[in-house]
Structures are given as C-alpha cells and as structure tokens.
Amino acid sequence: MTPENPSPLAARLDGLLFFPVTPFGPDGGLDLDAFRAHVRSGIEAGAAAVFACCGTGEFHALTPEEFHACVAAAVEEAAGRVPVVAGAGYGTALAIQYAGLAEDAGADGLLAMPPYLVVADQEGLLRHYTALAAATSLDVIVYQRDNAVLTPATAVELARTDGIIGLKDGIGDLDLMQRIVSTVRREVPGHAFLYFNGLPTAELTGLAYRGIGVTLYSSAVFCFAPDIALAFHRALDTGDDATVNRLLDGFYVPLVELRNQGRGYAVSLVKAGVRLAGLEVGEVRPPLSEPDAAHVKQLAALIERGRALLADGADA
Questions:
Q1: Which residue among 105, 106, 236, 302 is the one 20 to 30 A from 260 at the CA level?
Q2: Which of 261, 306, 308, 13 is nearest to 139 (CA)?
Q3: Above 60 in pLDDT, residue 1?
Q4: What pTM, to 2 d.p., does this model score?
Q5: Does residue 99 surpass a pLDDT of 50?
Q6: Average pLDDT over residues 100-121
Q7: Are residues 54 and 19 in contact, defined by beta-carbon separation less than 8 angstroms?
Q8: pLDDT by residue (tens digit) across 88-98?
Q9: Ranges of H-type helices in the chain
Q10: Are strands 109-112 and 84-88 parallel, antiparallel or unpaired?
Q11: Helices and strands, number each (H, E), in the chain
C-alpha cells in the first residue's frame, strides 16, 4: 500500500524549500518592496515553496502587522505557482493569533515553531500543537528544536491529528529521528507523514538524513546563492556523489565552520549573503547583531569558491 497524505499542501512540497530573509530599510522599518523582490527572485530561480517569516525571516522580530504584510506579499508574488507557508510561534494564544493572520493573508500552511521560553513536557507540547491545528484551517508542520523535542509516542499523536502534516527536525539526533520515523510508520500505517531536515545549512547533513528517508530540507544558501543550492540538491537527488562531495568539502563544510564563528550567524550571515548578491535587505534587528566584516569577506570568497567548484564540475 502506498502511504497517503490527504493534504493538498503535502502533495506540493517537493523540491528545495526557500526561507527568505525579511528586509529592513535604513530606518529599521520593513522594506516590503525588497521583500517582494527577494521572494520573486527565489521563485524564479526554482524554489519549490516559500516559507515566509520563519527563523531566517526573523519571525521573532516582526510585529503582527509586519508579519501579515510579508505573508500577503509572498502569497501575491507566488501567485499560486508555489505554496507559501508562514511561521507561527510563542505561546498557544499568540500562535493561534498568528495562524489567523497567516490564513487571512492567504498562506497555504504554517510552520509551528517552538513555544516561547518554557520547557514543556510531552503532554504540554501535544496540547499546544493540537490546539493550534484545531484553531486553523491551514496545514501545520511542527518544528522540533531547542525546547520542543518530541518522543516517538508524541510524534505518533501529532501524525494522527487532523491538520498536522509533518515534522521539521532542527535537533540533528538521527537516532531519535529514526525512532520517530519507524514508530509513526508502524503506528499510523498508510499515512505519509512528512519529514524535513531543518538544521542550519541542512546540506551538510543531507546524506545522513536521506539514509533514514528524510529528503525534504530547507536551504539557507538558496537565499544568496541559488545556483549552488540547486546544483547540490540536484546532485543529491540523482546520486551524483562526485558533485555532492566536491561541494561539501569545498563549500558547505567551510561555510558551516564560518557560521559557527558567531552567535546568530544562521540568520545574520545569510542576510549578509543576500546583500552580497546585490539586494539591499538591511541589517538584522536586535537582539541579533551584524556579522564581523572579516567574516562577511570570507563569505564572499566562499561563494566565489562554490561557483568555481560548479564550473570545475561542468568542465570535467
């Protein structure tokens, strides 16, 4: 029996997932024109979906009004070509409020980020996510990371919940993920629950996650170097190990080492990369801070190296 997922969104999430940054102007205010340009260029470059106002998009720093404006703009730019998924977070009441804003803006789904600050037990997490799913008509993907780590039993209950279509993993515990995948498959037979690799610079662990059947992932690199990100994704999909290893060794591993040089670089360094690509998206908002100028220079050199590696592969 082929597993099925009745969600229209689930059927459309196939390819490289784009998490745009949120641009701010010199005065610190939302730059909606730059956001539209960023989303539009990502879709035209080949993104399979737009995840607006999530972690890379500084969800934590946006007002509800800014959030609604960005999600609506992403929906308009997508124009049905690809689905738009919006972030939702904080406590249950606020997550439901953001879900309502996303629904009003025309989003296709929600990425439910961890509840704010508190370390809840499994019963509390289950109550939180099921309440969110019950309060919206949008499909929900649960983001496991930080203070929201699920047991296999909790994942089973989420998979059985109407409206919850998948789990994005930002922990990186492959033992846990294999147990979750196996338990859901055994306890909810015939249901294709979606799994996503949601680690920062997910390409670095792409081979490992594919080993347990997790093929969907979000690419921060796509924000500023879509050609590199798409080439890697294509190589991973087709089993082109030579290209995968060349880009891992020469680009992605050094990128992760650079990312690890500063707190918040999973967002601020990506935003610097978008500026390097020619789109002025401003700085990150507090409490994040800008990356060191020397690190931005290293990022520029790395992008050049990545493109040189692509050229070397094309010439081989």
A1: 236
A2: 13
A3: no
A4: 0.95
A5: yes
A6: 96
A7: yes
A8: 999 999 999 99
A9: 8-12, 32-45, 64-78, 92-105, 122-134, 152-159, 174-187, 206-210, 221-224, 226-238, 241-247, 253-259, 265-276, 293-315
A10: parallel
A11: 14, 8
From 53, 54, 41, 50, select the one nearest 17 (Cα to Cα): 50
- Mean pLDDT across the chain: 96
Cβ atoms of residues 220 and 200 within 8 Å: yes
- Residue 44: Cβ-neighbour burial (10 angstroms; 0-12, 13-18, 19+): exposed
Instruction: Single out the catalytic residue among 98, 168, 217, 265.
Output: 168
CB count, 10 Å around CB of 256? 18
Q: Average pLDDT for residues 205-213, to the nearest whole number?
A: 96
CB atoms within 10 A of CB 280: 13
Q: What average pLDDT does range 212-219 have in this prediction?
A: 96
pLDDT for 139: 97
CA pair distance 214, 216, nearest whole angstrom: 6
Query: What is the mean predicted confidence (pLDDT) over 273-294?
Result: 98
**Which residue among the candidates 129, 143, 195, 209 is catalytic per the annotation?**
143
At 2 the pLDDT is: 53
The C-alpha angle with vertex 186 and arms to 160 and 10, in degrees rounded to 5, equals 50
Pick the closest to residue 83 from 112, 114, 110 (CA basis): 110
CA dist 78 → 18, 19, 51, 218 (Å): 12, 13, 11, 18
- The answer to whether 168 is a known catalytic residue is yes
Residue 196 has φ and ψ, to the nearest 5°, of -130, 140
Average of pLDDT values for 152-170? Answer: 98
Cβ contact 268:290 at 8 Å:
yes
Give the 3-state secondary structure of residue 34: helix
Chain position carrying tokens 């993920």: 177
Neighbours of 127 (CB within 10 A): 13
Joined tokens for residue 222 = 């796509």
